[in-house]
Specification:
By secondary structure, this protein is of the alpha+beta class. It folds into two domains: 132 residues, no CATH class; 111 residues, Tetrahydropterin Synthase, Chain A (2-Layer Sandwich). It has twelve helices and four strands. Strands 1, 2, 3 and 4 form a four-stranded antiparallel sheet that branches. The N and C termini lie far apart (166 Å). The model has no long low-confidence stretch (mean pLDDT 82).
Length: 338
């Protein structure tokens, strides 16, 4: 009885092992055979490990086959690590192949670093390598910003509009941590403004537009960026407004307004002084009237004290009447013609 039970157990285990082998062959044999026939073998153990780690083994194996066929020996382990880190395995392999064919030194780790650095942007490591092989042309200023020209003013006050095209090539050694195209555009724009602003006349700018290119290139604007500037070409240059004349006209208008304000201040001060003098005149007249009002009181006091007699009073009245008569004779008649 015991030997028969033992045989059943052995038979069951054999069936289980056979079933597992069949499952493995069904799931992994095609991928293993494809890699084996491409001279880029991958063991069943690694394929099973990829499945357990939820790594797409088809992507990893196909990327390894592509690399091996291109003459690059890339194992599956670094490819898996880069995938788990969130990188694009296919772009990294294609970038390595493109760099190898173009004779550009690029190892796997740097390619992975570039791919992870530009993750989330519209750029790829493959595009970076292609730009390193085939230089790229950047418009300055960028038309997407809504601005088509760079405006600067020469020392004679004439504004000049310029548009440049910058030819750049990716510098893979500085691509990780290097500034992007926006920095290149900003620096070139600053260099163009500086070059035009330092020109004595707008005529010098129109006669020698290549001087702008030389000035910009001599500044080393690609320092710290992910690109190497090959050339800066002035695509278009034109005359704008006479900014100097406009500024002088605006300054003259401002000076006129200031002068008018100061004149108005002086006029207001004069009017205030005039009103003050009129008030003082009225005050003095009031004092005169007040003093004249004291005369009858003084005469009455003089009568009471005996210092003024009746004859003295009559003599004073005669003198006042004589004076009034003389004044009336001296005045011209009111209906006299001038």
């Amino acid at each position: 009885m015991i030997p028969q039970l033992f045989l059943y157990i052995v038979f069951g285990l054999t069936l289980l092992v056979g079933f597992i082998l069949v499952v493995v062959l069904i799931n992994f044999f095609g991928t293993w055979l494809r890699a084996k026939l491409a001279d880029a073998p991958v063991s069943f153990v690694k394929l099973i490990g990829m499945r357990l780690r939820r790594v797409p083994m088809g992507l990893i194996v196909d990327s390894r086959i592509t690399a091996v066929k291109a003459g690059l020996d890339v194992d599956t382990d670094p490819l898996e690590a880069h995938y788990l880190a969130g990188g694009n395995v296919s772009h990294v392999v294609l970038a390595l192949i493109a760099a190898d064919k173009a004779g550009i030194p690029l190892d796997f780790n740097r390619a992975c670093a570039i791919d992870l650095a530009i993750k989330g942007t519209s750029k790829t490591v493959l595009e970076a390598v292609r730009t390193s092989i085939n230089p790229k042309v950047i418009d300055c200023p960028n038309p997407s910003t809504g601005k088509t020209t760079i405006d600067a003013v020469a020392r004679d006050g004439i504004a000049v509009r310029a548009r440049a095209r910058v030819t750049v090539r990716s510098n893979l050694n500085r691509f990780v941590g290097g500034a992007t195209e926006e920095t290149i555009v900003a620096r070139v724009g600053e260099g163009i403004i500086t070059s035009i602003g330092s020109s004595a006349s707008y005529k010098d700018v129109l006669e020698n537009p290549d001087r702008i290119s030389r000035t910009v290139l001599e500044k080393g604007l690609d320092t710290g960026t992910a690109f190497e500037i090959l050339s800066v070409d002035i695509a278009d240059i034109d005359i704008a407004d006479n900014i100097g004349a406009k500024l002088q006209a605006e300054q003259a208008e401002a000076d006129k307004v200031v002068a008018q304000a100061k004149a108005e201040m002086r006029r207001a001060a004069a009017v205030a002084t005039e009103q003050e003098m009129k008030a003082r005149t009225q005050e003095m007249q009031a004092k005169v009237v007040e003093a004249e009002a004291q005369v009858p009181l003084a005469m009455a006091e003089a009568f009471r004290s005996g210092n003024l007699g009746v004859m003295d009073y009559m003599r004073m009245k005669n003198i006042q009447s004589d004076t009034a008569m003389r004044d009336s004779i001296a005045e011209p008649p009111s209906n006299a013609q001038p």
